[in-house]
Amino acid sequence: MKYLMPEFKKGSFLRKEMLDSLHSNQWDILNAIYGNYGDGIVSGMDIVISDETFIISKGIFRSASNTYLIKDSLKTEILYGDYYLCLRITEEYVQSGVEVKIEAYSEECVDKIISTDGFACVPIAKYNRGKGSKLKEITAIGDSFGSLINRLSRLVAKKSVEGGSTISDFYLRMYANEMLAKKNIKMKDIVFSMDALNGITSKYIIDNYFEASLSNEELLRKMNDNLKKAADSSSSDTTKEVIQPKNKTVMEVI
């Protein structure tokens, strides 16, 4: 792979081919670094609800074996109804310099785009907002079960890691914080939780901890089960009988 780096010398001119090469260099380098990562968000791309707007922070994501760098935060309106929030790249954007947009689509549109469009359409969240309601964050793993009306779910999002894709960092960090708040947890839970808070970059770590390669839905249920077991273990420890030491005979010395 050959990179053309222009030299800025007095009186010289930059050729179009040199500038075109510079433009593609960053994508070649990103693809070389993350070539064995799966599709999904590599880093950043956190979603913040701000009044009636979604704000997505800058970051890196992969789709269809390509790596994309988002240099600026993205914004879009929070609509009423049932939508997928997607990172979107089309041929039109590519021709204008690989611009990524954040847009909302119905489930039917997402399925159609992914199956027919050769460019990126990456779902990063799903929500169903009722008229006159405010959209709220999920604040605990257990909140992800049951009705998700007026809740922002990131279960459709994938985290891009070495060796494949897995569940979003949002759930990994939440699980870690909840697990570390339990009493008498196992050492492997502590180690995994610390890894999750620092940003897991290998699918092997997740598969090894949960003892299987699981889908996002299965991982979430496994997380919920683990937290319940940890809670049961903590409560049972507090009800254990406390054994008092036997009274010793005290001999008085005359």
Count of helical regions: 7
Largest beta-sheet characterization: 5 strands, mixed
CATH architectural name of the largest domain: Sandwich
Determine the structural class based on helices, strands and strand pairing: alpha+beta
The proportion of residues in beta strands is: 15-25%
CATH topology-level fold name of the largest domain: Triple-stranded beta-helix
Q: Report helical residue fraction.
A: 25-40%
What is the mean pLDDT?
A: 81
Give the tally of β-strands. Answer: 13
Report what the structure shows.
The protein has 254 residues and is an alpha+beta fold. The protein folds into two domains: 14-160, Triple-stranded beta-helix (Sandwich), CATH 2.60.520; 167-236, no CATH class. Helix content is 35%, strand content 24%. It contains seven helices and 13 strands. It has helices at residues 16-33, 91-95, 107-116, 169-180, 187-198, 203-210, 216-238, and strands at 40-44, 47-50, 53-56, 59-63, 66-70, 74-77, 81-88, 101-105, 121-129, 136-137, 151-153, 159-161, 164-166. The strands form four sheets. It has a five-stranded mixed beta sheet with strand order 8-7-9-11-10, with helices on one face. Strands 1-4-5 form a three-stranded antiparallel beta sheet. It has a three-stranded antiparallel beta sheet with strand order 2-3-6, with no helix packed on it. A hairpin with a 2-residue loop joins strand 4 (59-63) and strand 5. Helix 4 crosses helix 5 and helix 4 (169-180) runs parallel beside helix 7 (216-238). The longest helix is centred in the last third of the chain and has 23 residues, at 216-238. The radius of gyration is 25 Å and the shape is globular. The protein starts with 15 loop residues before the first helix and ends in a 16-residue tail after the last helix. The model is unreliable at 239-243 and 249-254 (pLDDT under 50).
